[in-house]
Fold:
Amino acid sequence: MKCRVCRAAAAIDVRRHNAAFCKDHFLAHCWQQTRRAIEKFDMFGPEDDVVVAVSGGKDSLMLWDVLLTLGYRADGLYIGLGIGEYSSKSQHKAEAFAKSRNATLRVVDLAETHGYDIPTGAKTAHRPACGVCGLSKRYVMNQAALDSGYQVLATGHNLDDEAAVLFGNLLHWDVSALARQSPVLPATNGFVRKVKPLIRLGERETAAYCVLAGIDYIVEECPMVSGNTGLRYKDALTDIELASPGTKSQLYFGFLERGLPLLETAETAGPNGPADVHPCASCGAPTTAEVCAFCRLRHRTTGTGATS
Amino acid sequence: MEGPKQVAAILRELDVNPESVIVICGDELLTRDMQVADDALIELRPVISGGTR
Structure:
């Protein structure tokens, strides 16, 4: 295979673009796709202070690298989840990356700040680990970003992630979740602005970028993710993608262009979420219930406070 | 596995979806049309990750 740009030997092919790229032009392709997403969806500008949610995995480290390369003001935020050796290794990868780029990494440890870790939380709450993890991370990321004065929280969700979530939401006709599946959620009601700049890149591209850019990421999968439904949706879509390159992109970007506008005008929910958001009685964070879902989890896990 | 063999043939033989992995040899990536020498060591690295972020 030859590079589409310079005709040198290709390092990677991207079938949905019917193209292959050498190392240098592939890196440039990733920068261009990320910049295009940021600008098209008006995610943020060079004057904004961005914090990247960093897990030590390929997507978040790539995103951080690309934002720094493109000249944005981007720090990192790592959340210690207490998942044994996996968490230790992933934190080390995040710290090593920050050091290599002379960038600022903030670390919040879930057990130190909120009194539980993910394995304990899942066990005591009798809930799937991925659900407890997602709820905890969303809360801690939002609070940490607001407390530290960042205007934007960027996550490494890529095209595969978004297509799989969309697929799941469609299978269940979860209209409320569909209405919130925008790559930009504006700052409102105690929520920091959230953006997903990697939506134009698939997981194969983020992995290839890390290898070619010399980014050392944690390759092994989280030990608690086994049986995750999202992984099954990803596998199914990847099988379809093999036969019909571009399927994931058509599904997701077709939805953003033609489906989401219909839902945003519906009564179910707007891009900002339900209108009746008010402060949590326990922590003051925005919620639609009396006590937010995170506090209910925390109280149940640590045996403290109200449990309503 | 005996070589030389094309990457695409290796993936086919192992029943691996080419969209689900990158193929690494040293610090380089291999495309599907490349030949792998008999004594080469390659890594098929899964790219699909799950859970929540």
